[in-house]
Amino acid sequence: MTTIVVIHTGPVTVDPLKAQFAAQLADARVVNIVDDSLLADVRSAGHLTPEVTRRLYSYMANAEALGADIILNACSSVGEATDLLRGMIRTPIVKVDEAMADEACALGPRVGVVATVSTTLEPTVRLIRRKAVERGVEIEVTECIAQGAFEALLAGDAAKHDDILKRAIIELAGQVDVIVLAQVSMARLVPSLGSLPVPVLSSPQSGVASVKRALAAL
Predict the structure, then answer these.
(1) Secondary structure (3-state) at 76
(2) Which of 18, 19, 26, 37 has its CA 20 to 30 A from that of 211?
(3) 167 and 88 in contact (C-beta within 8 Å)?
(4) Is the pTM of this model over 0.90?
(5) Is 143 in the same domain as 191?
(6) What spatial distance separates the first Cα and last Cα of the chain, rounded to whole Å?
(7) Smallest Cα–Cα separation from 109: which of 172, 175, 169, 171?
């Protein structure tokens, strides 16, 4: 049986990805490793730290020991650690947002990126810019932090979080050609956005599709 190990930096990414695995790779064994201190430490420092990278390495080494065929990194905030760890872990590693970033560059040139925390926004923007260079295209990125949304979520007010985020997405839609949702947990909002003039990209579906393609290439 195919084994996929998913590394999460919080519980909110587990269910969206579990649903996509059920839809796209129903026969696979999916093992979830969740450490919510990873994202907390990145947010506290304001950036990815060597200590967080070392802990990610330990989880990915454990995934290798579990016999994983593929490892999926589920968090954009630590995505740049994955770029480093790909040279240290034999098991192929997929970043959940890589395919989404590539698609955004294809749909640009005006790309809007929405997040609720800067530690996710900044690496997502850097990834999109790198994908644009790889494609040989010029893009213009508009960054948007949905102010107050993350604080509302921490306070247990999911409805307020969703309302702030939806208003930010709708406002940004008039300024860009495509919108990227920088966090896996945002994907559940897409059906409630109604008809927008531009596509809104989220990472769970394309991220799991990338895992499927990587497995086929093994």
Answers:
(1) helix
(2) 37
(3) no
(4) yes
(5) yes
(6) 14
(7) 175
CA atoms within 13 A on the CB side of 62: 13
Tell me the residue range of the domain where 174 lies.
98-203
Q: Are 123 and 114 in contact (CB under 8 A)?
A: no
In the structure encoding, which two tokens stand for residue 181, read together? 């949702």
Cβ partners under 8 Å of residue 218, min gap 6: 69, 70, 92
* Total domains, the chain: 2
- Domain match, 119 and 196 both: yes
Query: Do 127 and 102 reside in the same domain of the chain?
Result: yes
CB atoms within 10 A of CB 46: 10
CATH of the domain at 136: 3.40.50.1860
The answer to whether residues 63 and 109 belong to one domain is: no
User: Whole-angstrom Cα distance, residue 83 to residue 190?
Assistant: 29
Six-digit token pair at 160?
């307020």
Q: Which residue has the tokens 């409805």?
A: 159
| Integer Cα distance of 14 and 185 in angstroms | 9
Q: What is the pLDDT along the chain (218 residues), one digit of tens a residue?
A: 999 999 999 898 999 999 999 999 999 999 999 999 999 999 899 899 999 999 999 999 999 999 999 999 999 999 999 999 998 999 999 999 999 999 999 999 999 999 998 888 999 999 999 999 999 999 999 999 999 998 888 788 989 999 999 999 999 999 999 999 999 989 989 998 988 999 999 999 999 999 999 999 98
